Amino acid sequence: MISAEEIKTYKHVTREKVKFHEVDMMHVCNNAVYFNYFEDARVKYVQDLKIQFGLKQILENGSFFIMVNNNCDYFQPAHFDDELLILTKIDFIKNTSFGFKHIVVKEKRNVVIAAGGGVVVHIDLKTKQKKSLPAEFYDAVTEYEESISIIK
User: Fold this and answer.
1) Which of 13, 45, 54, 138 has the smallest CB count inside 10 Å?
2) Are 6 and 75 in contact, with CB atoms under 8 Å apart?
3) Superfamily for domain range 4-150
4) Using one digit for the tens of pLDDT, what is the confidence trace for 49-91?
5) Measured between alpha carbons, how far is residue 149 from residues 32, 88, 96 in Å?
6) Domain extents for the chain?
7) pTM above 0.90, yes or no
């Protein structure tokens, strides 16, 4: 299980509310929906980083990201109308890729119901080839996150 100490290392929070079309006949949130929540959280994370640190070379002028790995462990179900907190952080950065980690908390009961992560590769949108992450991205993430692995 995820410790309270580990949860404290996550600064970025995105809110989601389980919608009717995301649940099955038992009102349980479909497992695939969590990947949509993670995607929303990743996009918001990068957008917030761009604003907070004035990043100019990410998601502009052909800079784009693609997912190459996604995973999720489910501990308890989410149900229709549950309010969820998606805690997100970047765990590591390499030359052309970086890894996200996510924790899903059912807000009302303050209980962790899922955890996951993924790896994103930075590409040139025109050539579809890997592209080195700009220095400003490394600087912003290392300033924002308490602990991060830089793997070059």
Assistant:
1) 54
2) no
3) Hotdog Thioesterase (3.10.129.10)
4) 999 999 988 888 888 899 999 999 999 999 999 999 999 999 9
5) 29, 16, 14
6) 4-150
7) yes
